[in-house]
Specification:
77% of the residues lie in helices and 0% in strands. It has 6 helices and no strands. It starts with a helix and ends with a helix. 25% of the residues are buried.
């Protein structure tokens, strides 16, 4: 439980730290803005990843196979999988926003940050999710 909360808050902290670092001028934003071909591919891939990850992460524990594994005692594995579905693209979108200075990455990072609220690993959520019928 504590490990899940730590990873949850660390992913948000890493994203906020990147924002502070780039906005303070410690790192130079826009270093990849001239490479439009690579930028197009990366934007397309992360848009696809974000659009797929958000609903999947929020509804993950409704799948029969996942519920069966949770009942078998594998809650931590699935909780971490759900968390990484949102945390990894959040950090990637935040970094890529500053590399390419493309607002699409910023919007996706905001969507993922808002979506993280719906999977916050509170004690009552863990109790509710481990007792899924």
């Amino acid at each position: 439980m504590n490990m899940i909360k730590t990873i949850y808050w660390m992913s948000i902290a890493v994203s906020v730290l990147m924002v502070i670092t780039f906005e303070a001028g410690i790192l130079e934003p826009g270093c990849g803005a001239g490479d439009v071909e690579t930028q197009f591919i990366v934007v397309s891939l992360l848009e696809l990843a974000t659009v797929c990850a958000v609903p999947l992460a929020i509804r993950l524990f409704r799948f029969r196979r996942v519920r069966g594994e949770i009942k078998a005692g594998h809650y931590l594995r699935w909780a971490l999988a759900r968390l990484f579905m949102l945390a990894a693209p959040l950090v990637a979108n935040t970094l890529l926003y500053y590399i390419y200075m493309n607002v699409a990455f910023g919007y996706m990072a905001i969507i993922l940050l808002i979506s993280m609220v719906f999977i916050y690993p509170s004690g009552s959520r863990v109790n509710r999710e481990t007792s899924i019928e």
